[in-house]
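Appendix B, example 12.
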Amino acid sequence: MKNRRLRKFIKNMSAILAVSVFLSGCSAENNILTALIDDQNDRIEQEQNTNPTKHPGIYDSEDVAVVVKKDMEAGTVQFQNVSTSRRYTLSYSGITTLYDKNDQALTMEQLKEGSVVTVRFYKPEKSLSYVKENPDCISYSNVRNYEMDLRNGTISIGNELYNISGHVVVVSDGRETDMMEVNQVDELSVWGYKNMIYGIHVEKGHGYLRLQNEDYFVNGWIDVGDRVIRKVAEDMLLVVPEGTYPVTVSHKGSSATQEITFARNEEMAWDLGDVEITVVQKGKIIFTLTPVTAKVMIDGREVNVSKPVELEYGLHQMRIIAEGYDTVAQYIKVGEPSANISVELEKSEESTQEETSETPETKASKESEEEDDEEEEEKTSKKYQTKSSYEDDEEDDDEEESSEKKDEDEEPEDSKNSVVSSSGKYRVYIDAPEGAEAYLDGSYIGIVPISFSKKEGSYVVTLRRTGYQPRSYTLQIDNEQKDVNYSFTELMKLEE
C-alpha cells in the first residue's frame, strides 16, 4: 500500500517537473526572441543615426534653389540658392525622390537645368533626399514671344514684365552660359520666384546661315520661316533659329526657295548659284484703309492706293501713316495675282488726349506754333545734317543717285536701331577673340580686334573662324558719352 502511494507521488511529481521544464523552456525561448528583436531595433536606430541617407525621407535642411548642373555619371546635382546665390553640390541615389509641381514622379533625366525647385537634403553627408518643382514659382515653357532688355535687367513675356536676377542661371545645350548669348530667335523655358527670373533653359537655340554666289539677290530679301527677315547683303552670316524651315530669297520679282535644317551653333551654307530662279511675276494689291487719308509706303516709296498697286512677287516692307494715328509697320508677302489688304489704324494716345482737352482757340494757336517749329527744324536739319552709319569714314557720295535707286538700297526703318545719340565720337570695341571674323547684325565688319560707331540700340555680334564653332552675342548699347569695350571668350574648336 505504501509502495503504491509512493509510486503515485513519484508519478505526480514527475508530471509536475515535466510541466515545469516545459514552461521554463518556453520562457527561455521568449526571452531569447525578445533579446534578438531589441538588438535588431538598436542596430536599426544606430544605423539611422550614423547613415540616415540609406533611408528615404531623411533630411535636415530645406531650400528653394535653381538647378544649375546635373552630372549623371558622378550622380550629383549642383544647385543655387535663390536668396543668397550660394552654390552647392549634392549627391543623389535610388532613394532620392523627384516630383513635378503636380506631384507627378520625375526621373533625373526629366529634371531641367534652370528650373526652380524645393530641395531637401542631409547636410552632413551632402546627400539629396527630395526634389520638387516649386509650385509657387513662375514658369513658362517653350516661349517665343519675349523681349529682353539687358540694360534694365528685364524680360517681358506676353504682357508680363519680370526682373532678371543678377545671378540668373542660363543653360544651353548642357552648357552654362549668360544672357548675352541668348538670341531673340531662341525658344526658352523660364522660371522665376516672386517676380524675379532665376533660371532660363534654351530649348531651341540658333544656328547660322551663309549665302554663296548671292550676287543676283543682293539688295533683295531673305525670309527664314517667317522668323528672320533681312535684306540680302554681300558676305552675310545670319543668325537663324534651330530647326527645319523654308528659306526664300527674292529680288525684283524673282525668287528661290529651299528647305534647310539648322543645327544649334552650326553654320550652313546655301549656294544660290545652283538654284532655279523663277521668272519675274507681279501681283495687284487693293488697299482698304481707315482713315482713308492714310499714306502707304512700300519699300520706302509712297504708293497711290486709289487704284490697285502692282508689286513684284516676294517680300516688301509696308508702312501706313496718318496724322493722329499709330503708324503700322510690317512686312507683306506678295505671291498671288491679286490680293486685298485692309488696315484700320488706331488713334494715338496723344491725339486722343488732345481731342478731349483742346479748345478751338488753343488748337489754332498750336497749329501756328507747329508751322514755325517746322520751318526752324528744316533750317536746323540742313545746317547740322548727320549720317547714320556703322563707320565714321563712310562718305556720302550718293546724293546724286536717282530716287528709285535710293529707295531700292534703303534699309527698312524697322530693321534699324533707334538712335538717341549718334555723334560718331564714341565707339564700341571688340578686343577678343583675336583673329575671328566679326559680323554686326549679319553684315561683315572685319577681323577682331575691331570697332564700330557707338549708337544706342540692340545689336547682334557674331564671331566665326574656320574650324571653330561660331558664337553670337546680343549687345544692348546705351547712349552714354563714352566708349564701350567687349572681350569675348575664345571660340570652341570643332571636333575632327
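Helices lie at 2-50, 349-357, 360-383, 403-409. Residues 19-26, 372-423 have pLDDT under 50 and may be disordered.
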